[in-house]
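Hi C.,

You asked whether I'd gotten around to modeling the 219-residue construct. I have! Everything is below, sequence then structure, no commentary in between.
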Amino acid sequence: MKKSLLAAVLVAAATMGLAFGADKGKTVQFGRYYEDKAGKKLTPIEWTVLDEKDGRTLLITTKVIDAQPFHNKRIAVTWDNCDLRTWLNGKFFTTAFTKEEQAAIATTEVSALKNPRFDTPVGKPTRDKVFLLSYEECLTYMPTDADRKTFPTEYAIANDCYINTDGHAAWWLRSNGMSVTEPEHLATWGNFSLRHHHVDDPIIGDRPAIWVDSAYLKK
């Protein structure tokens, strides 16, 4: 069942023209954010390249960089109106990037496709500078549990990000989850979780994603 679902997603991705760039898996530094436990020093952010096309490069933070909740109140909420989206495109965006870097980040048409794992509301498409991956994007760009496993920064841990015995962290996706108050997320071992974590849960981490002007990254 899982293998057939993965195959279907990959075929769909190919149909939509998702062609992975030659630099997929490479890491780059772009912007700055807190990594130290006290959150006093802005440090260059390391990003992993997921794709490159049409002069733009898709990046996701290599590590979980914070542990902001999906939403601050336990209510039914989707990506288009959650607090995490507001924080990523507001405080995080202005803290992490200079004006020049902000201009190099594309405004992305963020889809609101239904997560095939759950029959829950999906919300509306958005236009964002910073976003989270969807379930489909995550499967496409990170097809194995090993691809999806990641460590958090000291700052994320200090902000209550949960880690397992190997030091790996769980992280949010933007897709609908098992209930209207439980968005999709990755478990610490890299698998799509079936545990109950509500929108206001402070222990799930954040891995922002952005599309950036490829020429700017190569300067």
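If it helps when you're writing up: Strands lie at 27-34, 42-53, 56-61, 108-110, 126-128, 171-172, 185-186, 209-213.

Thanks,
B.
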